[in-house]
Amino acid sequence: MNQFSTTEELKAYLLAENPQFRDLANEHRQFEERLGQLAALSYPNDDELVEEKSLKKRKLLIKDQMESILAQYRHQESS
């Protein structure tokens, strides 16, 4: 039986116990904050537009890495 009944419980566990997952989550949060700052700009310049596009791609890559860790842990738990 799975130790965690929800994905949120598993994420909380991994944030506390898995340094790689915690680092990815922190980086994801920082990118989210910066994207919020860029979105608030009325007239972003070209550099800011390029930064926004890059951050969105990097944030998605990090999310994929976090999902991979979650999937690996779920697989281990079900074995």
Which features does this protein show?
79 residues; mainly alpha
Task: Describe the protein.
The chain has 79 residues and is mainly α. The protein has one domain (7-78). It contains three helices and no strands. Helix 1 (7-17) packs across helix 2 and helix 2 packs antiparallel against helix 3 (46-78). It starts with 6 loop residues before the first helix and ends with a helix. The model has no long low-confidence stretch (mean pLDDT 94).
Mean pLDDT score, rounded?
94
Structural class: mainly alpha
* Strand percent estimate: under 5%
- How far the N terminus sits from the C terminus, by CA atoms, comes to 9 Å
Total domains, how many? 1
* Computed Rg: 16 Å
Basic shape: elongated
Strand count, sense and barrel status of the largest sheet are: none
Please provide the count of β strands: 0
Low-confidence stretches: none
What pattern of helices and strands is seen along the backbone? HHH
- What is the count of helical runs? 3
Helix content, binned percent: over 70%
